[in-house]
Design a protein that fits this description.
Helix content: 10-25%
Strand content: over 45%
Structural class: alpha+beta
Number of helices: 2
Number of strands: 7
Radius of gyration: 14 Å
Largest sheet: 7 strands, antiparallel
Distance between the termini: 30 Å
Oligomer: single chain
Order of helices and strands: EHEEHEEEE
Length: 128
């Protein structure tokens, strides 16, 4: 299933290095995945600052690679793309994400963004 997401993040300071590694891993293993930074940071109260990135490809591949990157670089990551089941007409985009450190989920985020353009903002965060 081909998808994309803008609500994945890498602990600040590791963005370019991790993106290059993610893309190299996917090329090496011939996986359907490509990531790029889009110069947007998200600050959280409990988990620090993250460099956001977008990707296209397979969602399962994206989730596996971001966990692998978290372990390899010993950093926190945001694994986004979780939607609610509610079907409501909204004036903004909403997304939910896990904050991970390696295999462990250390928190949850609720994110929002204007429907057309604009930056993602953390509207709620929860420690695990």
């Amino acid at each position: 299933m081909k998808m994309d997401s803008e609500t994945f993040g890498i602990e600040k300071g590791y963005g370019q290095q991790v993106i290059e590694w993610l893309n190299e891993e996917s090329r090496k293993d011939k996986l359907k995945f490509e990531a790029r930074l889009y110069n947007e940071d998200i600050e959280t109260k409990n988990f620090g600052t993250f460099e956001m990135f977008s990707w296209i490809g397979d969602v399962q591949v994206a989730r596996k690679l971001i966990i692998k990157a978290s372990k390899r670089f010993k950093i926190k990551v945001i694994e986004g793309g979780y939607k609610t089941k509610e079907k409501i007409i909204k004036i903004s985009k909403q997304d939910y994400a896990l904050v991970r450190k390696g295999d462990r989920v250390i928190g949850h985020l609720a994110l929002t963004s204007p429907l057309f353009g604009g930056k993602w903002k953390v509207i709620q965060e929860e420690l695990r």
